Amino acid sequence: MSFTNAIIATNVGLYVWGILNSFAATSRGGITDYEARLGLMRQFIDAGEWYRLISSGFLHFGILHVAMNMFLLLQLGRMLEPLLGPGKFGLIYFVSLLGGSAGALLLSPNAFTGGASGAVFGVMAAAVVGTRARGTNPFR
Hints:
The chain has 140 residues and is mainly α. It has one domain (3-133): Up-down Bundle (Rhomboid-like fold), CATH 1.20.1540.10. The protein contains 7 helices and 2 strands. It has a two-stranded antiparallel ribbon with strand order 1-2. Helix 1 packs antiparallel against helix 5 and helix 5 packs across helix 6 (86-107). The N and C termini lie far apart (33 Å).
């Protein structure tokens, strides 16, 4: 299994797991206990819950949210992973995920956030840089 497929399976699996858990969980302000354990917010980082910088990238708020992120990741992964290999592609993905989490904390420290968008857009940026480095204009 490729890194791309493994990340997609993990994201979709955790989304389904979250739906199944939300039926039995109590919610606080529309956030389920499951979401509250994974999501990102400045107060959690201040409390030493650094794992949320990664876990929030596997939390999605709605079927369209997870579907669009995974569709774009699939397209980008099919293009980049064969060129870079799973190790480099995975490194780009996780560094981008951390960058997206850092950006969310800087721009909206009090917002409860989640999703793989930071990671996916980082992979997209790598695709643009790689395409330009090969002498092709990706914007044509």
